[in-house]
Design goal:
The protein is an alpha/beta fold. The chain has helices at 5-10, 27-35, 50-63, 83-93, 110-115, 127-136, 159-169, 183-191, 201-204, 213-220, 244-254, 259-265, 268-277, 300-319, and strands at residues 16-18, 40-43, 68-74, 97-102, 119-124, 140-144, 150-151, 174-177, 196-199, 227-230, 238-241. Strand 4 (97-102), helix 5 (110-115) and strand 5 form a beta-alpha-beta unit.
Length: 320
Amino acid sequence: MFETKITKMLSIKYPIIGGTMMSLAKPDFVAAISNAGGLGILASAMYQSGEEFAHAIDQLQAATDKPYAVNINLVPMKKPVDNNVFIDIMTEKGVEIVETSGHSAPKEMLERFKEAGMTWMHKCVGVKYALTVQKLGADIVTVVGYENGGATGRFDTGTLVLIPSVRDAIDLPLIGGGGVSDGRGLVAVLALGADAAIIGTRLLLTRECPMHDNVKQSLLNSTELDTMLLMRSIGATHRVWSNQAAQECLELEKSGADLDEVISAVAGDKARRMFETGDITCGTLSCGQGIGLVHDIPTVKELFDNIMAQAKEIAGQLSN
């Protein structure tokens, strides 16, 4: 019932793609997502050297024999990495699926992806950009609506409109998300024309997610109203959990802070300190409005099995 173009192309059991969660998408967590039947995606931008990145891929490959992907991040960072070095390592290690995300399509990298035989997925913000990467030779397009955690794009388009708009415009397999937290959301995005759902925020509250329990418990008590938008002033709007660090960053933006000040306020080292110590005030965390639909902390496998069971039940009710 839930075999789609994406499950066939990527050889995955369920039409579920794990969102690329910076600082959290470590090898064991990524492997748990893939082992549970979805597609886990390793965040290359977490690593500051080729040696660290190569070791992470080795760990991932040792932890799963299921398909996985690696994300190449094109968003401006405080400590930029050399993506060409990472692509060299991915080619050497036999990485078969690459996801790119950022402000523009990585035209200079495309030939390298194709030469290495990689399936190329690109995450973009709307119809115009989906059409662009289709012409460039992308294999899969991913779009996420305004409800999602992390980068929201520049158009503020909700999931209910964005997915069918892109579906009508392109011929490629489509991954869609933004607020998907359960089987209801999965069925919804498939009905809108997507071939799989991308899920990020819901995966934060799983046992395998490498985040301190203090943070998980605080998120568990959050509602759909406990997120906010940051970095709009620098053209990199992100939806995050509304904690003290996020509020302080927003005040910086209101005061006219420059690019370096804003990026420093949301720096990854502060988020990592929060994840490790449980101090919920010291960093920002990408978080979508779907957090209000989360009420437990299962294993990834339990989560995916529950999502699919609920989706199957809903699809059966609709067909009747």
